[in-house]
Amino acid sequence: MSDGETAVIQSLAPGPIDGVSYPLKMVYCGQCSMPPEYCDYSGQTDVCRAWATQNAPELLEGLEISDEPAADGDEKKKQKRGGKGSKTGAAAAQAAASGGKKKGGGPQKVTLQREPRGKKSVTVIKGLATFDIDLKVASKLFAQKFACGSSVTGADEIVIQGDVKDDLLDLIPEKWKQVTDEQIDDLGDKKR
Description:
Mean pLDDT: 76
Family: Belongs to the DENR family.
CATH superfamily of the largest domain: SUI1-like domain
Low-confidence stretches: 69-104
Strand content: 15-25%
CATH class of the largest domain: Alpha Beta
Helix content: 25-40%
InterPro entries: DENR/SUI1_TIF, DENR_C, DENR_eukaryotes, DENR_N, SUI1, SUI1_dom_sf
Number of helices: 6
Organism: Caenorhabditis elegans
Domain SUI1: 117-176
CATH architecture of the largest domain: 2-Layer Sandwich
CATH topology of the largest domain: Translation Initiation Factor Eif1
Radius of gyration: 29 Å
Distance between the termini: 86 Å
GO molecular function: translation initiation factor activity
Order of helices and strands: HHHHEEHEEHE
């Protein structure tokens, strides 16, 4: 500092700052729920820009939301990864086109089978999709009902941890009236 200058020290003590009106009003994007200056990182920049133009044009002043799509590396990260038993490409398109129905228009059947997995066993259910039953909902119901793990592993297959075949023979017709007792086949135990 030179001889004639005086330093202005602003207090960093907690409390209100002069010239600022309280409570502070925060504005968030109605599409990505981030502050507007972060809309560029949401992956929905075009939708965020349209929302801001319509609802809060004053937010666009001084902001630069880029028009460029995400880079190839970012795009690959955003793609949903298929897990075990998931279909990709032509197989997924064919399953969607057929509506999950079995080929050939054969009789509608639900099959139950116990499979050994190491020292324990799992129950495999096939054929529920032929009755227009949502497999994710059914899997969640089985997991809650039997207090065990249950997952959709294929286009028309649910795997439940544990041997619950006998309980399923009663539960399926009770929960889904379109499936009768005669349409459920117990295939027994699968050999190793």
